[in-house]
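Session log. Operator J.P. requested a structure for one protein chain; no other inputs attached. Running the standard single-chain path with token output.
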Amino acid sequence: MTQTFQDLSAQTYTELTAFPEASWAVLAEPVPQGSIHRLHLKPGTWIPVHTHPADEYVFVISGRIKTGDRICEAGCFWFTPEGTSQGPHEALTAVELITIRLGTMGEFEHPES
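Structure written below.
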């Protein structure tokens, strides 16, 4: 086994179907169906309250994001245990996050319009 590297220029972002104002670059799969990824959110992106069936760790690289009642800025880190309700998340500015999820993302349930 050897070290692997991904320079910024080699990281490809893909739109997230459920959230068209968001895109991600998956960097690694640390466990089956888990991911370490960079997430870009455009200003105003809104992700509803949800849970994941796996632990999730988030680090804010840049921007300001409101998660629940908390406003998080660059340098903020948060941890959400599996099955714990989180959000909603609202990008107050352009936001870049690093997320580590130790298992499947699960299904997002959007509130009825």
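Operator note: DSSP finds no helices and ten strands in the chain.
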